[in-house]
Amino acid sequence: MTASSLQDQATAIQTRARELGFERVGFAPASPPARADTFRRWLSEGKAGTMTYLNRSADRRSDPQLVLPGARTIISVAQSYFSGRLPADIRNDPSRGLIASYAWGHDYHDVLLKKLEALADFISSLPSSFILHPSSFQKAYTDTGPLLEREFGERAGIGFIGKNTLLIAPKMGSTFFLGEIITTLELPPSPLAAMPSCGSCTRCLDICPTHAFPTAFVLDSTLCISYLTIELKGVIPRALRSKMGNHIFGCDDCQDCCPWNQRFSTETREAAYRATLERQAPHLAGLARLSEAEFKEKFVHSPVLRPGYAGFLRNVAVALGNWATPEALDALEPLLIHPSPLVRLHAAWAAAQIPGQAARLRLQTMSETEQDPAVHEEIGADRLG
After folding, report:
1. What is the band of 136 on the pLDDT scale with cuts at 50, 70, 90?
2. How confident is the model at residue 384 (pLDDT cuts 50, 70, 90)?
3. Pairing state of beta strands 138-141 and 24-29?
4. Rounded to whole angstroms, how far apart are CA atoms 251 and 162?
5. How far apart are the first and last CA of the chain?
6. Would you say residue 383 has pLDDT above 60?
7. Maximum Cα–Cα distance for the chain, whole Å?
């Protein structure tokens, strides 16, 4: 196979990727990632929290050949999800819950996977003489596969890894989704141009409400609001609740402050990533009244379903506590009597954050009937604290 033939294949794949709506596409060798040891050390330090699936897949994430034997190339693609920023008066309104902008529209797993599968089908239609292993030709992933995708995106020339650990693309920022196709087709690596960097900027590190970055380029997931509101299935540590503000699903703080995003975020062309205000920053009082069926209907096809009904209401309860007004106490009522102990526990904490006799009396009444030991203990701690 000649170099020109390989380049023709690469060019055809790039063209088709852009037709499918990807703003960036690049190729990298399917060799072990240079940051594999750093990733393993991060795991050993407990910074993945309860995301044990990362430990189980550590070997495969350290060697693409364990994901697809005979793999030659990893194709990385990027698609913008940026659809504007919330006005300051909406973002700073404590009666509204903030949802990370990547989750405003349809679940990107569904949207991206269809596009990746279409690109994979196109690759499969290339002349069979270029396919090395037809029986295991390729695998497509969004962020669900055992790959250190940001490193391969960096290798493919998509961008550079910033101090907030996100991949930042020059003239695009970091508000994009990554997808990969790992393939046995050998393609010429994308030429790596000199990349810029974060320089001396530390805005993302400084702005994090929970101080989730112990140092540049390292994220402690157990402190990250995205982890706390999405991945963590149990009780949010008491010390972190007051720092979460009105975030109820994810957090954009370390991206919103980034100069690369402020200057270069690229408006998405994908209609599925757009949404109305009530999917971007819904009123907390309305969310607190949702039944499970209503929750599923309101956020149909949305990543917001990921923490589950009780996990989502747990987040809403914390946000109501941080609102800390009589209106917030009224909104908490259905959560204080919710069937889920997880929801009641966080609602009790929230009620304790609200000044005034009404909140204290409500906790007193709750303590007289609560049967769950963990919730009862929370009420006692709240009343004393």
Report:
1. very low
2. low
3. unpaired
4. 17
5. 72
6. no
7. 80
Q: In this structure, how many other beta carbons lie within 10 angstroms of the beta carbon of residue 40?
A: 15
For the question of residue 330 being annotated catalytic, the response is no
* Pairing mode, strands 247-249 and 98-99: parallel
Q: Which amino acid is at 267?
A: E
Query: SS3 for 74?
Result: strand
355-376: average pLDDT: 95
| Amino acid code (one letter) for 50 | T
DSSP E strand stretches across 217-334: 247-249
pTM of the predicted structure, to 2 decimals: 0.94
For residue 228, the 8-state DSSP code is I
Q: Which amino acid is at 211?
A: H
Catalytic residue among 63, 89, 93, 143: 143
Q: Say if residues 353 and 243 touch (Cβ distance below 8 Å).
A: no
305-309: long-range contacts, CB 8 A cutoff, minimum separation 24: 305/107, 306/230, 307/229, 307/230, 307/231, 307/233, 307/249, 308/233, 309/340
Summarised one tens digit per residue, pLDDT across range 148-167 is 999 999 999 999 999 999 99
